[in-house]
Amino acid sequence: MSSSILKSSSIKSQLIKTAKGTRDMLPDQMFIKDKVLSQIKDIFKLHGAVEIDTPVFERREVFQERYGEANKLVYNLDDQGGELLSMRYDLTVPFARFMATHNIQKIKRFQIGKVYRRDQPNQTSGRYREFYQCDYDMAGQYKPMVADAEVLKVFCQQLKNLDLKFKIKLNDRRLLDYAIIEKALCKQEQFNSICTSLDKLDKEPWESVKEELKLKGLDQDQIMKIKEFIDIQSESSVKTLEQLRYLYPNNKILDEIQLLIRYLEEMDCQENIQLDPSLARGLDYYTGMIFEAVLTGEERNLGIGSIAAGGRYDNLLGYFSKNQSIPSAGGSLGIERIFNILEDRHKKSKSIINNVDVIIGSMGEVESLQLMRLASFLWDNNIKADIIHEKIRFKDQIQQAISKGAKYMIVLGEDELKLNKVLIKNLNEKSQLALDFEKPQIIEFIKKGL
Amino acid sequence: MSSSILKSSSIKSQLIKTAKGTRDMLPDQMFIKDKVLSQIKDIFKLHGAVEIDTPVFERREVFQERYGEANKLVYNLDDQGGELLSMRYDLTVPFARFMATHNIQKIKRFQIGKVYRRDQPNQTSGRYREFYQCDYDMAGQYKPMVADAEVLKVFCQQLKNLDLKFKIKLNDRRLLDYAIIEKALCKQEQFNSICTSLDKLDKEPWESVKEELKLKGLDQDQIMKIKEFIDIQSESSVKTLEQLRYLYPNNKILDEIQLLIRYLEEMDCQENIQLDPSLARGLDYYTGMIFEAVLTGEERNLGIGSIAAGGRYDNLLGYFSKNQSIPSAGGSLGIERIFNILEDRHKKSKSIINNVDVIIGSMGEVESLQLMRLASFLWDNNIKADIIHEKIRFKDQIQQAISKGAKYMIVLGEDELKLNKVLIKNLNEKSQLALDFEKPQIIEFIKKGL
């Protein structure tokens, strides 16, 4: 490291900002993140899913044309000689490339990693330029609705396990297609645009969406047909399905939806899942079932939108693969939003993060050597411990121990050591006792109490 | 996803390469990686270290001038309007920026993350352009040699815990300074260059290093003085120290090294650590203790160089901080190299990775509904399970179960189900029994056996 031209503190202070839309993770945040991610991984693994990873950047051609409009939000790397590279915008396109590279036809996989978007950051809603995605996919041939059902079961389990109150809205892209194109007789090229308007229904009233549809050239009759379809809603998916049957008798897609609902009942997650004909997500690559999870408890009012979403996309994964299509159903957890909720809960609960179980402090003239000898023994016996080497007031030592979440404080005191004793304070119970300074005995005592 | 111009399979096949020097992680690799990282984290946490994370890219000014020669290996992001950004080359400079941003004076932290170098990739030695670093640092004021000793203890524990045979070579930059500048009377500006030559001693014989030193302008007497110093080597650090005392009586640095060795003895890791005056790593930012761990067992012959390294750098962390210096000791685990070793061991052991504990298969006409009902019950009871939905030969079902590391296979058979029975095969013991198809009873049986 050359001692450089940048010496004055005013220049230094400009240097300490993170890049726009990115942030550091502080220890408390990392503690929660680590805990949440390990819970999430456990659920994926329950289903026999395997984990994969792909590089943060790929050859630019891999992404080109893949993101449509969003392509302008992709970060490119500078041309420094060699290949032209871009940073991943999501984990789905790299997954498609992965399937082709390793010639895989079937996999149940999850992937957790950071993705990059040159988007307008918005810290309150948790939108960053660098953020985690947490994807689960069942790729490959399955019987109808079998993978779709398991994907929904997985996200249901995830959200329950994170102790969130939620509802998963369920729909099928083909049904929307049928209602909008076949029944309301809209043009195929209007489909995406109409869905974009419908997608606003959870924030805007019908009247304004209706005006939008008019402006998009739909006539009174078309709008009425669409309204009739999206108005079919009930707490019970079975009832919603009955009404859809009444509206569209002989529709084969409804048979498949019925089968899906049947599977969900058998897997005991129908209570959290609700068939909702008005659900119309960014639909460009979905080919069947689509879903979106939203909060329903008190935390609904945090205004953070959906916390999980996905669907079936049968044409995406085979894109890079030679002569093969790879049907797939999957979804993504809105992990940054979930971090925010759980961080918030942690702050409200005012609970202290347990960084260590034991703090070793001292009173009087005690050498670091003695503190380290004991700490080393604790570490070798798998006990989380830290040492206070500084000569600070005993009160402050205890404060430090508490702030690190320690349950015990072992005090090496000048006077006690002469009698071959140490003090062990139980910081939770505010009790203490003197023990012979014999290391195995101390370990045994601590282990019993943890 | 627009269906794009790229249709022909020949163009497709060019698209499936990862970028040069990067690689995908396949499920088996990720399984091992995950296990290793969690073991590593556990040891860091034993010491009360907290985890932090920083973004993958930073404003370019943060890195400028920080890496000297290596600056040309930094990946820059394209100028797409807004800030100029670069990708991190290591985790140390971002850590220095982190300390300043959050105004932290003391922290014991670890960080695990990918870093990026436009270096010549070399897959056999495990050198990639995208790779993990795994850093541990004790930043802030401590008594002399206290943090240095704990850092060495941490890496000692890490390598032991990973079941590696290793030796940590230990030296002090100030001692090298003393030997080269004060005693051999070389010029200060020659120091780094001389150390670069000495650093080759583990690969090249003394004669060629000697020639290099001659070419660098050192005379016979200077070379002899240096040789005399680096020749002091013994299995025992205490003996090496004695000889150094004899060579350099009254040298105060030797008092500190003696104290460090004393601490290491007390922490029971002197056996793996060896004072070695010839150790001279890339020394530009080290200011005191330096170390490097190498393999000593059979795996020494893999030719993978050092598996952990670090030292004291008192001037680096305070660089971005206003008016303050932040002394620090720390190091890095060569985690990619360690992955390679453990992957290799795994392959040799031919052990199967346990992706699930139970596979649910079928015989005869059994509906997916029934398979899913049972699987769902297992998942809800925290048992790792997967279903074989395909109608494949029973032999192949068993093969699939074994390849996923399952211990049990539950068979729903058409005939058995009529009698309300299921078969449970213990695949390890090649035994089986018929059980009443009552879900709690099945759970109990499986849980007992896992």
Automatic annotation (TrEMBL), chains A, B:
A GO BP annotation: histidyl-tRNA aminoacylation
UniProt keywords, alphabetically: Aminoacyl-tRNA synthetase, ATP-binding, Ligase, Nucleotide-binding, Protein biosynthesis
One annotated Gene Ontology cellular component of this protein: cytosol
Top EC class, one word: ligase
InterPro entries to which the protein is assigned, alphabetical: aa-tRNA-synth_II, aa-tRNA-synth_II/BPL/LPL, Anticodon-bd, Anticodon-bd_dom_sf, His-tRNA-ligase, HisRS-like_core, HisRS/HisZ, HisRS_anticodon
Catalysed reactions listed for this entry: tRNA(His) + L-histidine + ATP = L-histidyl-tRNA(His) + AMP + diphosphate + H(+)
Domain Aminoacyl-transfer RNA synthetases class-II family profile: 21-346
SUPFAM superfamilies, alphabetized: Class II aaRS ABD-related (SSF52954), Class II aaRS and biotin synthetases (SSF55681)
GO molecular function terms attached to this record: ATP binding; histidine-tRNA ligase activity; RNA binding
Pfam family, one: tRNA-synt_His
Record keyword Aminoacyl-tRNA synthetase present: yes
Residues engaged in binding L-histidine: 90-92, 117, 133, 137, 281, 285-286
Enzyme Commission numbers on file: 6.1.1.21
Family according to the record: Belongs to the class-II aminoacyl-tRNA synthetase family.
HAMAP family: His_tRNA_synth (MF_00127)
PANTHER family assigned to the protein according to its UniProt record, in alphabetical order: HISTIDINE--TRNA LIGASE, HISTIDYL-TRNA SYNTHETASE
Protein name according to UniProt: histidine--tRNA ligase
UniProt source species: Stylonychia lemnae (Ciliate)
